[in-house]
Write a structure and sequence with these properties.
This protein has a seven-stranded mixed beta sheet, sandwiched between helices. Strands 2-3 form a two-stranded antiparallel ribbon. 26% of the residues are buried. By secondary structure, the chain is α+β, with helices and mostly antiparallel strands. The protein has two domains: 86 residues; 231 residues, BirA Bifunctional Protein, domain 2, CATH 3.30.930.10. The chain has eleven helices and nine strands.
Length: 338
């Protein structure tokens, strides 16, 4: 038995020396250490030994198994080391590494995330709605007369069945009031569509963020305080904000909002940034008719609404001269924001 084990060990070490790949090592392991291998077969023969012979044979069996296993592991490690060395052969470790490009959110996404975070601090919830709308939610419910230019096919994308691509996210405000009892405090970001000629400041599809606050005793002072806080949080604490009288069918009174833009090397100038106003009572009446109740009775509730373009905000913050850069997917441009 002892001689047989010594022979197995010698044969194994000789057979292992010329092996040069993983497949041959696995075949070697099966031949000597597998369930039907030579060493396993020799171990099975121990049952025929006397009690006096078994201790020496068992010790020798363990020694041979350890020797073969250690030699196999050493051979596998040596082959792996050789393969690793071959893989990096010829590489100049003194050369600079290859840079890995870093991804980043699109500037519009960055502005949207910042806007949502600011309004959430003021207690506004996030609301969404369909981009394919009907005329009631996009125009009628917002006190927009039938002869208003925005309802013309030259300004709005209509489908054959009379539906349209929403021209603003104000439709989300109407749908929210239809589904939710007051008070309401929401922002509604999303895509809007208009038949504008694409140029340095206009796109036919753009991103808008609108807001609505309906409650008891909501005043113009609440509107101004909310938006002054937002724009100073967005552009900086020293941002100058100006409100100008304007007209929108769905608010009364209505205001345009300007901020004073200070560009390096240029004279400071006012730039229009948003529109807003107190919700027209006629809008609340339309909502009451749509709901079939008086939950939004304009004699009890007031509110304000506002809307702004996210592209305009991004262009101001990042100094982007042409709005078309935001939709061209040019990595040379987008890499600036990573």
């Amino acid at each position: 038995m002892l001689e047989e084990l010594a022979t197995i060990e010698a044969d194994a070490l000789i057979a292992l020396t010329p092996l040069e790949d993983e497949a041959s090592l696995e075949a070697f392991r099966i031949e000597y250490l597998g369930k039907k291998g030579r060493l396993t077969a020799a171990a099975a023969g121990m049952r025929h030994l006397s009690k006096e012979e078994k201790p020496a044979a068992g010790q020798k069996l363990n020694e041979v198994r350890t020797a073969i296993t250690s030699a196999l592991d050493a051979k596998a490690s040596a082959l792996q080391a050789a393969a690793d060395a071959a893989a990096v052969a010829g590489i100049d470790v003194t050369l600079p590494g290859t840079p890995i490009p870093t991804g980043a959110l699109h500037p519009i996404s960055q502005v949207l995330d910042r806007s949502i975070a600011i309004f959430r601090r003021l207690g506004f919830a996030l609301a969404t709605g369909p981009e394919i709308e009907d005329e009631f939610h996009c125009f009628d419910a917002l006190n927009t007369p039938e002869d208003h230019p925005a309802r013309n096919e030259k300004d709005t994308f209509y489908f054959g069945d009379g539906r349209l691509l929403r021209t603003h996210t104000s439709s989300v405000q109407v749908r929210t009031m239809e589904d939710q009892a007051p008070p309401v405090r929401i922002i509604a970001p999303g895509a809007a569509y208009r038949r504008d000629e694409i140029d340095a400041t206009h796109l036919s599809q753009f991103n808008q963020l609108e807001g609505l606050f309906i409650g008891e005793d909501v005043s113009l002072a609440d509107l101004k305080g909310t938006l002054e806080y937002f724009f100073r949080a967005m552009f900086g604490e020293d941002t100058e904000v100006r409100f100008r009288p304007h007209f929108f069918p769905f608010t009364e009174p209505s205001l345009e909002i300007d901020i004073k833009l200070h560009a390096a090397g240029k004279t400071a100038k006012w730039i229009e940034i948003a529109g807003c106003g107190m919700v027209d009572p006629a809008v609340l009446e339309q909502v009451c008719q749509s709901r079939g109740d008086r939950l939004y009775d304009p004699e009890k509730f007031t509110g304000f609404a506002f809307g702004m373009g996210l592209e305009r905000i991004a262009m101001i913050i990042y100094g982007i001269p042409d709005i078309r850069h935001l939709i061209e997917n040019d990595t040379r441009f987008l890499s600036q924001f990573s």
